[in-house]
Amino acid sequence: MKTMTFAEAIEEALARAMAKDKRIIILGEDVQMIRVNLFARFGKERVLATPISEGAFVGAAVTAAMAGLRPVVEIMMVDFIGVAMDALLNHAAKVEAFSGGKWNVPLVVRTACGGGYGDGGQHEQSLWGWLSHIPGLTVVVPSTPADAGGLMLAAIDHQGPVIYLEHKLLADYWLDYVGAGGRKTVTFDVPDQGARGPVPMPLEPVPIGKAIARREGTDITMAGVGVSIHRALEAADTLEQQGFSTEVLDLRTVSPLDNETVCGSVSKTGRLLVVDEDYRDFGLSGELAARVLEAGISVKYDRICTEQTIPYHRKEEDRTLPNTGRIVEAALRLLKR
Amino acid sequence: MAAPVEANLWYIYENMFRSRLFEEAISRAWHEGRISGEMHLSVGEEAIVAGTVLQLQAGDAMALDHRGTAPLIMRGVDPTLLFREMLGYPDGLCAGRGGHMHLFSKEHLAASSGIVGASGPAAAGFALANRYLRPRKVALAFFGEGAMNQGMLLEAMNLAVVWRLPVVFICKDSKWAITTLSASVTGGKLGDRALSFGMPAVEIDGTDVETVWKAAHEAIDRARAKKGPTFLQAACRHPEGHYLGDPLLRIARHPVQEMKKVAGPLLKSVTKLKGASAIKRSGGLGTVTSLIGQTTKEQVFDHKDPLKIVRGRLKAEKDRLKKLEESVNEEIGKAVEGALKSSN
Fold first, then answer.
1. Is residue B4's pLDDT more than 80?
2. Exposed (0-12), middle (13-18) or buried (19+): which is B265, by Cβ within 10 Å?
3. Which has more confidence, A315 or B301?
4. Residue percentage of chain B with pLDDT more than 90
5. Most A-contacting residue of B65, B82, B97, B162 (CB-CB within 10 A), to test interface
6. CB B155 to CB A94 under 8 A?
7. For B232-268, what is each residue's pLDDT tens digit?
8. Which of A55, A285, B28, B308 is 20 to 30 Å from A336 by CA-CA measure?
């Protein structure tokens, strides 16, 4: 075990993988600066700077993967994925099906997501529900340094396209790049356990599609990904003081969902509170309810999500994103029902 | 296959003829209702396809659009497999999961897309992988002139130039984007766009396979020599219109019968109260009639068949030609028969 930041663990994973496999290349905007250590070690042919042209370079990464490379293509923020959506929706996600299973796309799309630092509604979205809606895409969202590294290794090994979402509150360099700007005059509610923590050495892949209980409990299940896990853990502490036992499930992979772990936990507690920084409607929170109902489990259910375009005003923003206060309130309502 | 085009003319014609016969069989099966959905044939594009694809080597890649049949046939994909894919059979080229707009052959590094303009980024990615894994191998991008207003294609051209990727961008210019005249929705000249990215742009007659071959030869050589991409704009005609059952073409071919369906609602719309002014209405009606008129003129009467052109250069050797055509006819006949068999 070694203590590392979230960002260091991802870099460790990439460096290990790139040293072992020459087919792995990184491409994206500004990557020679943002991934300066990898650039220094592997050179400009393996850490390839692109124009601001996601429509072209994400599309190119798809066929590059089909033709034998293992590209890790970066979309600076998931909000910018709109212009590259065709490459993912109509190509990366469909080639395996269209080719009758004869051709696959071993591609990683790495992108920063999430809010809580005052960048406004076009730079702080989560969008994993939207991406998971598409058959053929795998979507992972780590919440700890060990998972950040382990899921990156697993994503690189995976035979199909994986969207790897990295929360900006957890990745310190992103916060510095897009929020703090070198200032010491601004602070953010960064979850310590997520931004820095123990990482197994050598790094091990974390299996895709496997959730993990970050905290075990018997009265209520909270489920989510990314920063929401840390908000839920904080809420669980408060609930414990009031005599309630909370299980916190870190899904880690949004698609494919780990039905078994979710249903196992909800069968035990009888209550499910989804904590999801992504939009509420037509997303992960509703999907989890459906999975539990499909399994025939009777459940008391609620969700704390983002319900509107994320406002710029910092206090309004904090109220809009799932915060500990909202989670505790909703949990108590469910527990007393 | 880097020999001069003259030495290959028989080989080229054989491939074009095979592709045409194969697509005629597809057309029949489509009209008989055996093939579902839309059907975009390569008929009319054979000289462009033959002049480029037949120069490829193992390891070269093709990013195809929604007219992938001819390139795949000429690249050597088994016609029976291809036909069974059109029919949606589980033992088709793509297990019946792709269909004619989504054809893939991994061994030929050939990938189709039904999204207009997507072959640009796709070719760039193939070329990028080739640079690492198969040096001196190239990628072709096929698209129509209508795709030249699609951002991702133009972005891919820029990418190919700044990364010096071995791509040949092949714009099959039929002048029509379904029912829209491309000139009416396109600013400037297509070649100028390519030039402005910093790549050579060559405008050629895409119905003359020898012309295409020579231009493509230079472009492919340039790509292999790591000098970057080239833009070829090759004029052609689609005698079947945009796709089988093209509405404008149906009207052009059977004006009385087809106009009956259209005329009633159209006249009603022109005479209904409220809406645009009378002048604008008659202008709109004029646009529709002129599109139909232009279709009639271009597609029915002014059709330059690339096969006839090349055949004309070979017909002095009558017996050889006859033998070749009979042999290909038999081959495709068997392939199609084989594909249709055990179809129940």
1. no
2. exposed
3. A315
4. 77
5. B97
6. no
7. 999 999 988 889 888 888 888 888 888 888 788 888 8
8. A285
Measure B339 CA to nearest chain A CA, in Å: 18
The single-letter code of the amino acid at A311 is: P
Q: What is the pLDDT of residue B278?
A: 83
Q: Which residues of A touch B63 (CB under 8 A)?
A: 63
Domains and CATH numbers, chain B: 5-239+304-340 (3.40.50.970), 247-301 (no CATH)
Domain ranges within chain A, ordered by starting residue: 2-199, 212-336
Fold of A2-199: Rossmann fold (3.40.50)
Is a pLDDT exceeding 80 seen at residue A23? yes
Quick one: average pLDDT of B62-74? Answer: 97
Integer CA distances (angstroms), A81 to A48, A73, A78, B51, B162, in order: 19, 12, 5, 37, 22
β-sheet bridge partners, residue B105: B110
> With an 8 Å Cβ cutoff, is B102 touching chain A?
yes
Per-residue pLDDT for B298 more than 80?
A: no
Strand bridging mode A138-140 / A162-167: parallel
What pLDDT shows up at residue B2?
Answer: 55
Domain range A212-336, its CATH number among 3.40.50.970, 2.40.30.100, 3.40.50.920, 1.10.3720.10 = 3.40.50.920
> A243 is written with which tokens?
């005599």
Choose between B246 and A306: higher pLDDT.
A306
Cα separation values, A175 from A32, A116, A169, A178, A273, Å? 18, 10, 6, 5, 29
CA proximity to A92, closest of B125, B68, B71, B163: B125
Residue A205: exposure state from Cβ atoms within 10 A (0-12, 13-18, ≥19): middle
Both tokens of residue A89?
A: 């929706």
State the pLDDT confidence band at B99, using cuts at 50, 70 and 90.
very high
